[in-house]
Amino acid sequence: MKIQIILAGVGGQGILFSSRLFSDLGLKLGLEVTGAETHGMSQRGGSVVAHIKIGGYQSPIIRGGTADILYSLDENEAYKNLHFVKQGGHCFVNMVDGDRFNKNILDHLKKKNISVHAFDASGMAMEMGSVRAANICLIGYSVGTGSVPFTYEDLKDVLKSISRKSDLEQNLQIFDTSVARGKQ
Amino acid sequence: MSDKEYRRVLLGNVAIARGILEAGCHVITSYPGTPSSEIMPAAVAFKKEMGLDVYTEWSVNEKVAYDNALAASIAGKRSAVAMKQVGLNVAADSLMSSAYQGVVGGMLIVSCDDPGPHSSQTEQDSRFFAMFAKVPVYDPSSPQEAMAMIKDAYDLSEAFQIPVILRPTIRLSHGKQSVKLSTPEEIERPAHFEKDPGRWAATPRFRLQLHTKLNESLRQIQERFENDKRWNYEVGKNTGINLGIITCSTSFTVLMDLLDELDLKDKVNILKIGTPYPLPLARAVDFIDRHEKVLIIEETDVVIESQIIDKSKVLGRFSGHIPLQGELTPNVIHGILAKFFRENGVADLDTSADDELAKLVQELELPVRRPTLCAGCPERAAFWAIRRALPKAIYTSDIGCYTLGLNLGAVDTVIDMGAGITLASGFYQAYHQDKNDIPIVATMGDSTFFHSGTSSLINAVYNNARFILVILDNEITAMTGMQPTPGIGVTADGTEGRKIPLEDLITGCGIRWLRTIDPYNVKELIGLLKEAHAYVKSEEGGIAVIIARHPCLIKYQEELQIDRIKVEITEDCNGCRYCIDYFECPALSFDEANNRAEIDRKLCVDCGVCINVCAQGAIVEVDREND
Fold this sequence. Notes:
The structure holds two protein chains of two kinds. By secondary structure, chain A is an alpha/beta fold.
């Protein structure tokens, strides 16, 4: 497997945790991992973007138009980072109402065979009692849709190993539920 | 598991810390600054995890950090000092001199560059500092390579008794990679200072001898690098190929990924350089001789390129093929390659961007998330009070979170660490010479004041300057990730240090007018600033200092027991936007549809400061009983 992932959002949405989830997944699969993170400004309300490259890349950053997957925990940050996604790639966007995704942009992406999966990850995280777990919801949902090349078991194992003890049970429950939602 | 080797995905700076410890380093010092700040905390974490006896120190500035590490190396131990690239400017005096005098135990200087720049005043290339000071520099291309280079750097440093620089760029420092870890070397080095005045207290006559010796060492080091195949090597020895690229640092990895992606690996030969100074010049010249055209891709400046004398076949910054400023991102290098291959008839790369998508996204007019002070930040309250009290003053400021006082119109200058005070005294003298004493308010954070504020303040007092200095004391180094300061007296590994109260220090600098206040009390602070201004102007006056002290909300979120003042916006709001534009709290936004300000409850920390801001009195405390 050779895959490039962009994780986008704003400070405090758990981008660095998600970045760790995918980099440890690569490690678990015995693959080389590189990536890049934004540090410093994230606590000052700025945009946060993480790059993850799994399976034999050398450089830390993803070139525009070559990412396989974009996960965005914020609608606006999704638009800003769409240029990273390659033809035929997938975007998973956390937004309350998927129908609100800009129609012109959606049509344009369709021409490039890029799929947009909008999902109210924050709403679900709130329902499950952990506002901060929207990142896990969005990733779980993507696994459920079957359009990403990670298995449920592998991701769950990594989630287990990196979750704080106090969050572990809830994180796994949230992950399972969001995977199920993605399957629907 | 005595010789356990295992893999982990580490942040570049964490890998560098690990590499330093694995090389058996005894003493590590640092002053925080992006992109170097994570090295010290990682070293502390590893030292605790593995129970290592390593001395770790957050020093008050980079020069002090340098000298402390240097002393350990002179006493025979292995030392490391970490800083950002502009930190090396502060430590330059020490670097230049110690290059001549050398070291005994290995000494590694980690100077993290910031092409972009993402979080720095300049894009300066630390490798030039290596040339300037005449010390060797390693230029790693990945976290894993940095770890391996560190071990070699210590061996080199000890073999030639010379300090050695490691120069990671921000993409390495804040990049991640799966790396192989091993057990730290245990090196016994009891501190032993061998007196040798001709070396350690060298007068100019001895300095000439030391310089001669340094030049000889550099010659031998260059020879060693000419024969080295670990850091300097060729990739793809394609025969019959006329094009070559010389490259280094993360640009090398970007190039390799690009050639892979574009399937152009067999169209070009590559010479990867890991030791740009002293450059293995014969190898580089030989490589150029074997090709018709050679492109040099290096960040951030022309360190390799300028060492190549005959540039007739060389393309790079001098020939206009590489931008003179900015980061060499994958997109930029793609553009450089496209031109290089097109000009030489090798390939025609598709450089078209998705302009339509860019246009569609631009049409959305998405709000730009510029960095701002946090909701409830005490520095915002202080800046707002300063602007209210002395709206016509010149506001000199400094480096830290509070640089963002720019957004509130309360910061006019940001030059370098300490210049908040020196520019205030300089402005005073320049205006005073014309008999025109204008109000000047300097702002500086607590950590910056400890870094380089005292010498500036002593100078200002001594030379009769007059201005107001507001020290924004949030009891932490906030912008770079919450490093402790002498003001709270906690050291790098969490052990207790001797606390140095700012008040004592300021009084010791000769200040006769000093007040301390919590800036949340905005009205009182405005009053105090006016009092300070009166003192500055009075016959017997001088410099007035106000310590605006309130702990950083991010750092002390859990411990802080603030008096919560929940606010709401009443119907008196007339949509003037004053609070949005001049107070700029992230918890305040504007409801365009209803033409009024509103409060984001998720972000608001109930500090109640904004009550003071609204001229209409439309921001009020929610009736506590009805809440």
